[in-house]
Amino acid sequence: MNRTSVTVADVRDVGPETIALELETPDAFDALPGQFVLLRASPDDEEIARHYTLSSPSVDERFEVTVGVDPDGDLSPWLASREPGDTVDVEGPFGEITYEGDQDVVAIAGGPGIGPAVAIAEAALEAGHTANVIYQDADVAHENRLDSLEAAGVPVTVLDDGDEEGLHAAIDDAVDHGQIYAFGFAAFVQTVADAIESAGGNADEALIENFG
């Protein structure tokens, strides 16, 4: 989809300094969990563009992205202040990391990666497959969705930031339970790749999105 003005449907707090931005799906938009979009806006008359990975399991009528809000940031505070009926320009989707509802999954997230991780886990359940979620962060976001996944029988492991031993142990337990997806910043996803190899898996077969 080329650059399109999209209507804001809802903005919700989903964790400390974290929002879910829900947007109405335009006619030309079709995306799978794991893909990302480009949001453009001009908060101070200067255009700013940022990529955000989808955090909704589908895009039928609405779709969602999860935004970490930096009070000193140039775009995220503006997004957090949006109200239903406002608009934001969107392009995409982009990215080759996708979940097509065809297999069991292990969704591993660091920090803001929890958005796409829960989306993929939810999509797997909806498709009749199993899911595991491993999440590491100093502050938990999307706690309600994690609780719902756990209530549905999904093993959910939440780890403190920096707990590499716990991350290795969780990946060791889950490495053979499905296709591995991992989302997070560079240091985190490198630790995930190392843990996969240590557990006897193949990190090259994991679908990993490095946020930089």
Q: Sketch the major β-sheet.
A: 6 strands, antiparallel
Strand order of the largest sheet: 4-3-6-1-2-5
CATH superfamily of the largest domain: Nucleotide-binding domain of ferredoxin-NADP reductase (FNR) module
- Poorly predicted runs are none
Give the amount of beta strand, in percent.
25-35%
Average pLDDT taken over every residue:
97
- Find the CATH topology of the largest domain: Rossmann fold
CATH class division of the largest domain:
Alpha Beta
Task: Please indicate the count of domains.
Answer: 2
Shape-level CATH architecture of the largest domain: 3-Layer(aba) Sandwich
Radius of gyration from the CA trace? 17 Å
Distance between the termini: 24 Å
Tally the helices: 5
Explain what you see.
- The chain is α/β, with parallel strands linked by helices and 212 residues long.
- It folds into two domains: 4-94, Translation factors (Elongation Factor Tu (Ef-tu), domain 3); 105-210, Rossmann fold.
- 24% of the residues lie in helices and 34% in strands.
- The protein is built from five helices and eleven strands; from the N terminus they run βββββαββαβαβαβαβ.
- It has helices at residues 76-80, 114-126, 143-151, 164-174, 186-198, and strands at 4-15, 18-24, 36-41, 48-53, 62-68, 87-94, 105-110, 131-136, 156-159, 179-184, 207-210.
- Strands 4-3-6-1-2-5 form a six-stranded antiparallel beta sheet. A five-stranded parallel beta sheet has the order 9-8-7-10-11, sandwiched between helices.
Key terms:
single chain, about 210 residues, alpha/beta, Elongation Factor Tu (Ef-tu), domain 3, Rossmann fold, 2 domains, six-stranded antiparallel β-sheet, five-stranded parallel β-sheet, globular
